[in-house]
Amino acid sequence: MAFDLNTLDAPFAALAGFDWGADADFFKSIDAAVVAAHGDASLRGDLEKRFGTLLAGSTSRATKEYVCRKLAMIGTGVSVPALAALLTDADNSHMARFALERIDLPEAAAALRKALGMVEGSLKIGMISSLAARGDLPSVAAISNLLGGDAALAAAAAAALGTIATPEAAAALAAAKPAGDVAAAVIDARLACAEALLAKGDRKAAKAIYSSISAAIGDTPKTHRERAVRVAAKRGLLAAAE
Amino acid sequence: MSRRSTTRRRFLGTAATATGAAVAAPYVITSKALGDATTPPASDRIVIGGIGIGNMGSGDQGAFLGRSDVQYVAVCDVRRTWRDDGKGRVDGKYGNKDCAAYVDFRELLARDDIDAVHIATPDHWHAIMTIAACRAGKDVYLQKPETLTLREGPLMIAAARRYGRVVSGGSQRVLEDYRDIVNPCWSGEVGTLEAVDISVGGPSMPCYLPAVATPPDIDWDLWLGPAPWEPYNPGRCDGNFGTGGGSWRSYVDYSGGSLTDWGAHHFGGAIFAADLRELQPVSVAFHPASGGAGPYVSLTYPNGVAVHHNRPQPLRPERPSVAHGGDIQVHADGTPREGKAVPTYKGEGGIYGDFIDCVKTRAKPFRDIELAVNTMTGPHMIAIAYRLERSLTWDRSSQRFTGDDEANRLLDRARREPWIL
């Protein structure tokens, strides 16, 4: 049975003026429409159009947050521009990623990659995080370039490369010259890369990483972390040799 | 020189110099530190810190603090009251002022004298903290439900295995409260299991509570952590056990609701009784409301056993083979089969003793993180089926739903910067 679009007018009018603490009963109608949009391109298109209008307008943070949650479920390429416009906005950047990270389309990834070059600080870490969660291969070079800079960004970049875990990511991590907490993040990421490479059958590459880490940590680790890293490297070497 | 004595001496040097938000008094060696007839010397005790120290955290703290083979040295909580209370309990136990108190868990994890941590924060912090603890070389006792999203589980298992850490889930009830179904199932007397019915509340809900002035007692940004920013309201972060609104366990950003919270116990007990802990479901079926009864959802495991959530009574077999009150009903074929010994805890002192024993021996605990993740996979799949109102097929090897992009979008959620998984 087709969804009656007319029933959405009043809920969307309420959503436009929503803020935290207001009556939220009307959400039930929109929530039901979002579920019903599965396999209904027309309804999906109508919802995305309405959501896009709310994102572009001077609506509250609470309204935009709700919209992003729904677009995380049903958003398509149609919604990407409106979401991308929020990526550089400190208040709404996370919720824009909340949707874009889950939209498995090239244009969503492209929006995140573009924003990576436009924002700084925590927002940049956010882009790194979402690109990593997507396993975004084209972003490896840009993320690798962050390994040598600000410590928080470098640690996030290392974690991301460990998640993406391609040979290119592994190479960038191997070339990094980290210090302090970043060094721990790089080692963890290198171990993750080695596991991924081993899982794909590249024993040689995995062994090289494990050998390098094992040599760096030495036979007399001094801290809990160093002991754990040594365990990881030794176990990895055994696994790579099997 | 033992590793323990080495780390213990290092602690003498670091506790007094803890920086930042830490509130650490100079360490003074007391007679208790030297041990006596019933208490091993401090150098032989497992050194523990607690993260998230209110409600369940205080219970966990009490269990560890009561053990003579544990030295409790630090607490961490974003709420000052809970932090102070937690420190007070430790200092009161040891008769000194030595327990360090942290706002930021990363400072606690940076202490090399700490061997293990217990974590009892809201669920949205579990994965990040557990993985960070493993990277720091700590063993972890983690309150249930161990995961908030399906993507988190494999990452937590990977971190534990990578670094050889003991990571125990934290449902003390799974083994201790469900003997009435566990024993007859494992003994074989009820025969081969066919289905299990579990009655427990549903998934968590959105939270639209109004903004309230943030009290100075809480670091609200750190409480939210990786969750979406929303204004402070005491009902959003109340630590009570309710799931019907007005507590963090009610809301989707911080919890899976009753389905994963109390459900961690019920599903844990039922899945343990049915010996399904090594498995993950292959499918989840959504059954719409019908005939005056509400919707319900059914999991199917690779061995054919079905686990139903809130299946209406008229649709169940007339009499279960065994039951745990009205909450769990087990249906079996009634043909006795060969039984197996029921797995149990190691060490002394329930699930806490099991964890401590495994920290010492490096064995896997009763609720090893992999078994916990497998167990919680079912309730998470059920929540997604309810949300989408449709049936789904699960591919364990790829950890994805088959042929359903919208369902796969719900495997995880973007974390608020600067937090990264």
Describe, in plain words, how this protein is organized in 3D.
The complex is a heterodimer of chains A (242) and B (421). Chain A is mainly α and 242 residues long. Helix content of chain A is 69%, strand content 0%. Chain A contains 14 helices and no strands. In chain A, helix 7 runs antiparallel to helix 8. The longest helix of chain A is centred in the last third of the chain and has 20 residues, at 180-199. With 421 residues, chain B is α/β, with parallel strands linked by helices. Chain B has helices spanning 3-14, 55-65, 80-94, 105-109, 126-135, 152-162, 173-176, 179-187, 220-224, 234-237, 262-273, 350-361, 369-388, 405-409, and strands spanning 46-51, 70-76, 100-102, 116-119, 139-143, 167-170, 193-198, 283-287, 296-300, 306-309, 322-324, 328-332, 392-395, 400-401. In chain B, the strands form 2 sheets. An 8-stranded mixed beta sheet of chain B has the order 11-12-7-10-9-8-13-14. Chain B has a 6-stranded parallel beta sheet with strand order 3-2-1-4-5-6, sandwiched between helices. In chain B, helix 8 (179-187) packs parallel to helix 11. Chain B is globular. Chain B starts with a helix and ends in a 12-residue tail after the last helix. The chains are: A mainly alpha (242), B alpha/beta (421). The interface between A and B is large, with 53 and 43 residues.
